Amino acid sequence: MANTTITDIPRRGAEEQDKFGLLAYERGLEAFLRGASTPITVALQGEWGSGKTSLMNVLRDDLCGTNDKEGEYYSVWINTWEYSLMKNSNEALLQILVKMASEVISLSRSTSDEVINSFKKAFMGVGSAIMRNMGNKVADGLGDGILEALCKDGENSIADLRGKLQIQINECLKKNNVKKGIIFFIDDLDRIDPPVAVELLELLKNVFTLEHCIFVLAIDYDVVIKGLKPKFGELNEKNEREFRSFFDKIIQVPFSMPVSQYSTKDYIIDELKKIGILDSSDSGDVDLLHNIELTEQKTIGPNPRSIKRFLNTLSLIKCINDAKQQLSGNKGEEKEISQIRKLKILLNLAIVGIQVAYPKVYQLLCLESGFTMWNDAIASKMGIPHIDEQTKERLKKDSRFDEDWELVLYRLCQTDKYLNNNALSISELLNLLREKILDAYRAQHGTSDSEELSESDIITDFMNDQMSQTAVTGFSAGDKTQLEYDKKKLMRDITAHLCRHVGEVWKDVNFKPKRVVSTAGGINTDGDYSNMVIYQNQPENHKIRLQFRLDTKQVEQTKYPEYLVSEQYNEQPNQRLSELKEVSALPMFVELMKTREELLSNNCYYIEAERRVLNNGRFYFQFWFDVIFDDSSAFFEPRSLQTMKNVTKILFDILFKFHKM
């Protein structure tokens, strides 16, 4: 039986074939390291799955040797992720240092007990210093208290430990004059918690000064940025130099994985043949191979890990389809016309590529597979925010986003930074599928068929056929079965938690839980204040959605012109707060807009407000807050409950301030 999977294991070394055209980069980096003066630290930068570990394996084989050949350097390999599991950051840092030193000691088989005991004493001192300063870690944010204690001179310090390591390294090289030094390969720094990774870099920079040593680190600059936020805050133009300076003082040479240069087309085509999706006759089909390449570029991209997941998903779908044919007695003798077969291959690859690369777009396809039928109703089911009229008019002049379904796609992409960066590629891919579906239909039925379906129906038919195959390989299937949970209990519990919370914040206001019906609840207030209503949508696509609604009182337009700064308010009586920059700058709305921006990247929450201008000379604001989870228990997880409490507090705070106007 042929192989059905591709393992996501890095290249084991230089003897394993280079499948992505990296040979020139590998040899260039090897030549650089061979001629490098020491000490030197090189960072291999790239996202998860971009091949950093594979490259390190190749470098280790070529520079440090294998079982069959002697290398120019000793090799020490540290997988930091292993040491960060089930340990706090202090223990992880200590264990990594212990591993580095023990590996150096083991390189010299004749190390005396005296030397080993000396190291043990040094590490006991380092460990004691770490434990003494654990409290400082919390106070100083990045472990500066620990670093201060360990990096001083004298016994029980990193300086003392480094001195002992240097002596041992020198002894090793004296005994083997073939070796030029030691290369420390420090892998998976970008898989541990970013602040811990930064602490480790801070600590190791004092070790990186060892003579005759090369340090090769697998870490991405973005991880350093995340890890430094507690120290420098969010990255911006003013503090960017501080982030870069931290990185530069530790890393002498950055090497970014050349992902954009990877040659993946031949690899993907070969693997598609192996798993039986393509056959030998497809090798000469320039149009099909070109469209497969376009699909790969516009979805999964050149990341090796994403490519392997993509191919394994396709292989699983192929195995399931083959099993269905066998069980039904259909051996597949009936040959489809060539264009239909090619279309099904392309659709299969495109949908799986979207599933792997853009889960939110795939979720939208699960709601409506006929993507040219996407509209405001579908967008509402997904909780996709609206866009302002000015942006909509601008997009209408752009052929890439001028149709209603393309506008829905654009709106979805605005909710996620990665989607936003790839919005054009997704639009181009879906338009390519649209073109190929219609071409294949005409080839099968002709253009004069009096019973020809509408364009949207044709697209829906073809897409439905392929979407049904991918339902088993997503994070959530496309089946729309109802979730089993107690609607009334969910609403009662949420209402009780929130009512208790706001009652503790505003002790002078009488809050009462609203009477709960199966799909609605909320919080009542006494006096003339508005009440908060919580609506519960019917479960759909394995999601539970609650929407919190709250209206302010109505006030006279002429008394508060600062809230009506837009000249178009009479033409647009309902206008989103996010579209009104002047209004959102008012003190009353600052916290709301800040929270809204913070939650935009989290597809579980969405906050919006709308200014509603009435024809009686009054206006008011309506707020709504959507919370969407896969199951009812998720609403009561500490972070989720705290988010709902925070937003509820903000909304009531605005309500009360508005009431006093």
Overview of this protein structure:
By secondary structure, this protein is α/β, with parallel strands linked by helices. About 50% of the residues lie in helices and about 10% in strands. The protein has helices at about 25-35, 50-65, 80-85, 90-105, 115-130, 135-140, 145-150, 160-175, 195-205, 220-230, 240-250, 265-275, 285-300, 305-330, 340-355, 360-365, 375-380, 390-395, 405-415, 415-420, 425-445, 455-470, 485-505, 580-585, 585-600, 640-660; strands spanning about 40-45, 75-80, 180-185, 215-220, 255, 510-515, 520-525, 530-535, 545-550, 555, 575, 605-615, 620-630.
Compact overview of the structure:
By secondary structure, the chain is an alpha/beta fold.
Entry keywords:
661 residues; alpha/beta; 8-stranded antiparallel beta sheet; 5-stranded parallel beta sheet; 26 helices; 13 strands
Give the SSE layout.
Layout (H helix, E strand, L loop, with lengths): L22 H12 L5 E6 L6 H13 L8 E7 H5 L4 H19 L5 H20 L1 H7 L3 H7 L7 H18 L5 E7 L6 H11 L8 E6 L2 H12 L7 H11 L2 E4 L8 H10 L11 H13 L5 H25 L9 H20 L1 H9 L8 H6 L7 H8 L7 H10 L3 H5 L1 H23 L9 H16 L16 H19 L5 E3 L6 E6 L6 E5 L7 E8 L3 E2 L17 E3 L4 H4 L2 H13 L5 E9 L4 E12 L8 H22 L2
Parallel strand pairs: 1-4, 1-5, 2-3, 3-4
Antiparallel strand pairs: 6-7, 7-8, 8-9, 9-13, 10-13, 11-12, 12-13
Helix pairs in contact: 1-2, 4-5, 4-8, 5-8, 9-10, 13-15, 14-15, 15-16, 15-21, 15-22, 21-22, 23-26, 25-26
